[in-house]
Amino acid sequence: MNGAGGAAALLLVLAVVAQALWPAWRLQIVLGAAVLSCVGAALGGVAEAPAVLAAVPWNVLVILVALGLFTERLAATRVFGIASVAMVRVARARPRALLVLAALGTYGVSSLVNNLTALFVTLPVLLTVFALAGATPRFLSLTLGLMLVACNLGGAATPIGDFPAVLLLGSGAMGFSDYLAAALPPTALAMALMLALVLLRRPAEGMPDTPLAQRLTLATLAALYRGVRVDRRLLGPCLATLVLMMAAWMLLPPALGIGPELVAWAGAALVLAIRPHDGERALKRAVDVEALLFLLALFVMVAVVRETGLFTQFGQALAALPLPPEGQLLVFICAAALLTGLFSAGPSMAALLPVAEQLAVRFEPDVVYVGLALAVCAGSSLFLTAATAGPLMQSLVDRAALRGPAGERLQFGFREYLRMGLLGFVVILAVAVARTLWRLA
Amino acid sequence: MTAFAAQRQAFRLAAAELGMASAAWVTVEACADAAGDAAVAELRDALGRDWPVLDAVCAGWLQGARRPRPAPGALQAALAGTQRLVIVGHEALWIDALVAALPAPVAGGAPALRLGLVCEGAPLADWDRVLANQAGRVERLGLADFQAWAGPRSSLLTFVYGQGQGTVFVLPPWLRVSGSDVRLQFRQLLGWSVLGLPLQVYPRWLVSAAADTLTELVEDVA
What is the ipTM of this complex? Predict the structure, then answer.
């Protein structure tokens, strides 16, 4: 390992560890570390600041901002909230059916919008049902835990679902159609396995499941949403734009020079222009500046490490492991999953993609990249803190002030999620490993 | 877990978002639909002491009372000359009826009567959802900024759940907006009587206010 590379990598690791330990200061930690990294690279003769900044994947940031804005407009149509209420009606507020539909619904929604938004639009209705119908601590933990895993799986199912897949799309590692065809089946399989395993544990045992409780729940829910309507005038253009964006992502030839970031940007501009007043407000208030700055800082640090040639050395070291090529790839996938569990998806994916690029030279690219995306998905599911949406779910549950059968306050935190997290980690990683071995066979 | 143990939490949420009287009617109707009057009596035994408005509605139901159809005509008459109405407290059935009775605003124009709801005093309420039910006709206000709506063509309105000797039972936020400093800033302070049934247990969650803090008490006559 060269000295400059080692120092830059150490700084990156320290920043990632520090931001995990002191999340309240995460932005200052990573931005400060990014500045130090840049200064070190300039003084150490590794690269000057313009070169480092030029290596930042700005198109990924453009896609993230554009999809965030698109999602905000789509959520403003209230279609997801209404769909969630319809889901409860279809389930007739029966706990077992509710669990299944909530998990599948979350998987579907998070494959279209980012994980945070997916939870923001689906969870309130479910928490309302828990407040109305009551829930045992076990049912609450299993349902919410499964939803969180479903959120991660849905995010990994499509190239626009969450950051790791967006990074693959934006970096040009994989095209929209290729990623969709390769990632959708294994994530759907993992979802089905998770659902089956959770249902085997009889999650609804002890839950109130009487016609009276169901009637009361449905009547109150109907009253709470009595006048809430889907904004069809906004939904129509939003869906039409989504179809156009997907068609462009799948059909436009790369030679045209219109990349996925430009398509996302144009799509966001189109939906923002439908209602210019609301669009302008969304631009000023709905952009997730925190996530943007966090990722920018990570990208800067990764760019410095890349300039030192360390990732190439990692790739070579992996190739030198006394294992068959399949084994080397599996080591990479398992390490990626564990690193993500510890450091969360953003930092891990940003740091591991350059190594994956080295591996993609030796293997079919989709085997490496989808394996990496699934590994990051598994790692994101391991701990509540690793999942992008985990802390959000925790705070929404806290705010709902739910009570259990004995009047005890219901909690959903690190401990309550852990068993489901371990199950999700094992199942998704097993699917990732199985897919990799199957593709290499 | 009995059905009514879960209902303690459920009613708390429903009361926060729908208002105590509206939530009580929804709950009692659903209960009677599912399991008959015996279940309403059981509901009253289980939750009535904690929720006096629900207790009154259960008792009324068992004596033949049914969900009221709020008639905002008398209120509209009292609002003659008012252009901005600040509503303190929330009762979904009654606000729905008022909104439905008002003429729809001309496209792109301001409504003849602007409605603002003081979204305070119910920590469990999802105020975005509460307002989403009114299709943009009701605007969000807070205790900190409701006075921005004050003026000679502005009125304050709250819901009245019962009357005693020279007193009315109202929601606690009313006490915070009906002080002598505020009342001079508004054209009138109206009460809208919504329960029409006697409160039979101690009016927990409600406060007693001097009846003369109200300029007018509008009875809900169907």
Answer: 0.93
